[in-house]
């Protein structure tokens, strides 16, 4: 049994050096930077109900989502038990048509309010 331990002890460092001596794999060439999707960057005009939450100016979809989340957090509208659910106040109820929606459903409902 003692010889098996000695043999294993001798093999372990040899394996480490074999791994360390392996040639380094070169990283692939950097891909060209992706251009932002024009559809997301196009300014969209919010409906009257959505404008009450985010303002009347036309903004890209990404900014609409950010502004709605700012409103939700500012007014503490996330369900404390399940943070994925949004409790609608009077302004959001006009957009959502429900008392509570999931954050995933919210994006679709907001999209319907943009033109």
TrEMBL record:
Q: Which CDD domains match?
A: SWIB-MDM2_like
Q: What is this protein called?
A: SWIB/MDM2 domain-containing protein
Organism per entry: Sphaerotilus natans subsp. natans DSM 6575
Where is region (Disordered) located?
1-34
Residues in domain DM2?
A: 39-115
């Amino acid at each position: 049994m003692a010889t098996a331990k000695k043999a294993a002890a001798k093999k372990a460092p040899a394996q480490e050096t074999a791994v360390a001596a392996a040639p380094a794999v070169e990283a692939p060439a950097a891909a060209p930077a992706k251009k932002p999707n024009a559809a997301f960057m196009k300014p969209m005009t919010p409906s009257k109900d959505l404008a009450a939450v985010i303002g009347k100016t036309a903004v890209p979809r990404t900014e609409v989502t950010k502004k709605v989340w700012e409103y939700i957090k500012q007014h503490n509208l996330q369900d404390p038990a399940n943070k994925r659910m949004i409790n609608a106040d009077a302004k959001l109820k006009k957009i959502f048509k429900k008392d509570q929606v999931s954050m995933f459903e919210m994006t679709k409902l907001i999209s319907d309010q943009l033109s």
